[in-house]
Amino acid sequence: MVSYPQKIGVREHFLRRYSRRVVVRAWNYYQLTKPGLTALVVVTVFPGFYLACTGSINWQILSLAFLGTALSAGGSCALNMYVERDADARMKRTQNRPIVSGRISAQEGFWVGLILVSAGAGVLALWVNLLTAALSLLASFTYIFLYTPMKRRSPLATFVGAVPGALPPMMGYTAVTGHIGVEAWIVFAILFFWQLPHFWALALLFGDDYARGEFHVRPQHIELLMILASLVLTAVSLMLCVWGHAGTVYAIGALALGILMVIRAFRLYLQRTRESAFSVFYGSLIYLPALIAILVLDRPSVLLLTLGIKR
Asked: pTM of this prediction?
């Protein structure tokens, strides 16, 4: 006969084993959303939101905008993994993704992605506004149904893929205002042109892997295009000053960051080495948070009002 203490031990063993499975499953779901990319998407909501604020930040709306965007972006990434599972199996950098490795079934990944995208749009529609929800659905549709299949056909897919990547800051702006203003289009353009050298640097660094996946992501004269994109990015970022939505601090900072991007791209054009491609990629990773920080510093009134400090 089994004693009472032994029964407790069996139960604890079962609970621990079951809990471990739940944690592993939750971790696989988390990996299905491409957490790094999703986090970057969520961060880009903030500059548009901050730019639209005329008083203190509404933390409730900002939090809901972050949540809705995170759900929508994570779901889009899951659906992307579902569609590209055969290509992911051929590429070294993606062979350990949840669906490819068999940790999550393809059907399960599809339903998780669909539920997350729907939940994100629902959060935005119910607690932010319908326009922001519509933009989230537009981003998901463009990413899944246009960009994802187009990568196998043409390097022009990068331009298409930059559209959903540029919509989150516009969503941040519409979360505050409920409409699309000039500032929203400018932050959209900044994110659009920022993505081009950022992704093309990855295309150079992982070109062989993309080729194994049969992705056509390297256009002709890619190094020259990166210089042009960096120049346009610099010009577009300064449009906030031209339209009177940013001041001297932002102008100096944006110009300095843009020049650094152009220098890195020009060095890549001259050297055409892996190291110079890494330089462009890491430079792009520094550029975006630095630009957001400069934008915040340039509009201290919003920050001060948020902190409850009167000038």
From this structure: 0.92
